[in-house]
Amino acid sequence: MCKKCDGEKFYITTAIAYTSRKPHIGNSYEIVLTDAIARYKRMQGYDVFFCTGTDEHGQKIEEYAKEAGVTPKEYVDKVAGEIKDICDLLNTTYDHFIRTTDDYHEKTVQKIFKKLYQQGDIYKGEYEGLYCTPCESFWTESQLVDGKCPDCGREVKKAKEEAYFLKLSNYQKQLEDFIEGNPDFIYPEGRKKEMLNNFIKPGLQDLCVSRTSFKWGIPVDFDDKHVVYVWIDALSNYITALGYNCGENSDKYRKYWPADVHIIGKDILRFHTIYWPIMLMALGEPLPKQVFGHPWLLFGQDKMSKSRGNVIYADDLVKLIGVDAVRYYLLSEMPYTSDGSITYETVFERYNSDLANTIGNLVNRTIAMTNKYFDGVIQEPDTEDFVDFALKSACTDTVKKVDELINKYKVADTLDAILSLAKRCNKYIDETMPWALAKDEEKKGRLGTVLYNLLEGIRYVAVLISPFMPETSDKIMEQLNCDNKDYSKLNVFGGIKSGTKVNKAVPLFSRLDTEKLLEEIYAKQEVAAKAEEENNKKEEAVKIEGLAQIGIEDFCKVELRVAEIKECEPVKKSKKLLKLTIFDGEKDRTVASGISQYYTPDELVGKKIILVANLKPAKLCGVESQGMILAASHGEDVNVIFVDSEIPAGSKIS
Q1: Residue 591 in contact with residue 629, Cβ under 8 Å?
Q2: Residues 137 and 131 sit within 8 Å (Cβ to Cβ)
Q3: DSSP type of residue 377
Q4: Which of 2, 64, 147, 438 is at a distance of 20 to 30 A from 197, taking alpha carbons?
C-alpha cells in the first residue's frame, strides 16, 4: 500500500569495499541493491541517509603496495578512486562515502579501542594459530576445510604474535537473547539459524583485534607496537561516518543511529552479526535494527576471479548496454537466497526480452499511436469496459505487491512484478486493438479511453521502476510529457492529465545483435590471451638471455603429470585453440591449447602427454583451461611431447 512517511529517518549502509583491486560486476551488485532500496524509501518520503565507502588497512594492502612499488596510501588512494568512480557510474545516490584512512575515522577508532581496553573488554595476550592473509583471519585446525581457509579456500600459514583480544565470551548470552528476541535482526531467516547454531551457541572465542606483524593500520595510541586489526577499524565505519565520538556524538549520529539495515554479502555475515553487535554492546550503543545478507553474483556457476579469466567489470558492461540496463540485470537476476549468475549471453538475452521487447516496445507503440490518432493529445476517458477495470486493478495491485516485496528485500521479485505490469499493458493492447478502433469514427471516444488507460499504465511502470532504473523512468516521463511522479497517490488510477500533449516516441532500448557482440567479445579475449602469452614469452626470453637461474625449491613448485587425452575438439571463435578433455589420473579436466595448426583432434585422442597440473586456471575464448600441456617449438613448428602409452595417467614426472 502506498504511504507517505514524511521525515521518518532511514539509515542504510553497504559493507565498505576492500581496496585490494578494482571491483568486478559481482562486487557492484551490493551498491546498486542498496541504492535501489534507498531510492524507494526516499520516494515514500523517508529522510534517508545512505552510507558506503572503502576499507583500506591491513597486511594484504601492505603487500600489494610493496609489489606495485608504491606506498600503501598511494595504493589505496588509487583503488578507492576506482571504487568511487564505479559507484558514480552506476548512478548511486550515497549521502556519504567514508574511507577508513579518513582522519576523523582513525581518531575515533583509537578512542573506541582505548575505551574498550580501559573498561576491561580488551586485554593483551598472545595469538598462535593458522592465519589466512587474504581474509586476514586466524583459524584453529578444526575450523579448516581440507586444510585450508574455510572462507576463501586458500592456504593458511602458522603465525604467532602478541595481540590484544576482545572478550566476545562475556557477551555471548546477551547476544543470543538479543537475536532470539529480535527475529528480524538477521535476514533472511536461514542465515539467522546458521549464525546461532553454527557459531554462537557452540561457544564464542575471544577475538584478536590488534597485530604487530605489519604496520599499515591505525596505531594503538597507548602501545605503538600494535595496529588496530580489521574488525574494530572497518566495522566502526557505520558510526564514525555519522559522527560518533565515544560520548561526544554529533547531532547526525543521534538522529540516524541505529541503522535501519546493513546490506552485506553472505560471506561477512558472521562479522556483522557477532563481532559488530558485541562491540556496540560493550560501547553501550544501540544495535542496528537489521542485517541483510545477500547472495553472490557468479560468472556462470563460478565465483569471479581474475586468475580464472572470468571477470566482467561494470564499466565495460555499461559501454555495451548502458547504466540502467546493467542496474536492471543485477537487480533482476539475483535470487533472494541462492546465488545469481551473469554471463554476456544471459545479459544480452535479458536486455532484448525484458527491456527492448516488453518495456521499450510498450512505451514506443503507445506514444506513437497517441501521436498518430490524436496528434499527441491525451484524451479524456469517457467509458469503462471490463478489460479497462482489469488493467486498472493490475496497476494498483502492483503498487501493493511492490511495497510488500521490497520491504522484504526481494528485489528480483519486485522487478518481476513491475515487468508483469508492463506485460499486462501489452496484453491490453492486444485485447482492445486500437488500430481497429481507429478505423471507425464512431469509436474515437473508445480509442481515446484505451490510449488514456495505456498512458496511465505506463506512468505506473515509470514511477515504480524509478528506484531501479532512474534514467529510464525519466525518459518515459519525458515522452509522456508528465511530471506526476507522486508515489503516494498511486492508490487511485487516473493521475495523468488529459489535454496534455505527449512528446515524440523515441526508442528506449534498441535490440542488441547478440551474435555480433559475442563475436567481438571473444575476439578481444583471444587478443588479450595472445598478448599475455607473448608477454610471458618475452619475460622468459629475458630470463634466458640473462642466464636467470632458479633454485630447486622453485622447480619443485611445478607439478608435472602424465595425462591421457580422452576427447578433443576445436574451440569456437578461435583459429588456434583446441579444447582437450584429459584424464590426470584422478579426474577429467579441460585444457585449451594453441595447437590446432599442427594437429587434428583425431591425431590427439588416446595419446598420453605431460601436463602442468598445478597451473592457475585461465579463461580462453570462453573455455576454462585447467592446466597446460608440454610441447617443443623449433622455428615455425610445434610438437607435443608424447609419452609411452604404457605409463599410467597420473604418474608424476620429476
Answers
A1: yes
A2: yes
A3: B
A4: 147
Average pLDDT rounded to a whole number, residues 120-131: 89
Residue 257 backbone dihedrals phi, psi, to 5 degrees: -80, 140
Q: How far, in Å, CA of 70 to CA of 314, rounded? A: 26
How many other CB atoms are there within 10 angstroms of residue 6's CB atom? 9
Q: How far apart are CA 145 and CA 499, in angstroms?
A: 69
Residues facing residue 122 across a β-bridge: 166
489: CB partners within 8 A, 6+ apart? 2, 495
Residues 4 and 448: their CA atoms lie apart, in Å, by 32
The letter for the amino acid at 354 is D
Q: Which cell is 220 given?
A: 594503538
Supply the pTM of this predicted model: 0.80
**The pLDDT of residue 538:** 59
Cell of residue 122, nine digits: 580488551
C-beta pairs of 183-189 under 8 Å, 24+ apart in sequence: 184/289, 184/290, 185/273, 185/287, 185/288, 185/289, 185/290, 185/291, 186/269, 186/273, 186/290, 186/291, 186/293, 187/290, 187/291, 187/292, 187/293, 187/409, 188/292, 188/293, 188/336, 188/337
Question: 123: which 3 cell numbers?
Answer: 586485554
Q: Grid coordinates 571473444 are at which residue?
A: 522
Percentage of residues of the chain with pLDDT beyond 90: 63
pLDDT at residue 516, rounded to an integer: 92
| Secondary structure E strands in 333-466 | 340-342
Cell 588497512 maps to which residue? 57
Range list of H helices, 481-513: none
- Quickly tell me which residue has 562486487 as its cell: 27
Identify the pLDDT of residue 545.
47
Cite the beta strand spans of 485-615 per DSSP E: 560-570, 578-583, 588-593, 608-612
- The answer to whether residues 381 and 448 touch, using CB atoms and an 8 Å cutoff, is yes
List CB contacts of 95: < 8 A, sequence separation 6 or more: 48, 49, 50, 51
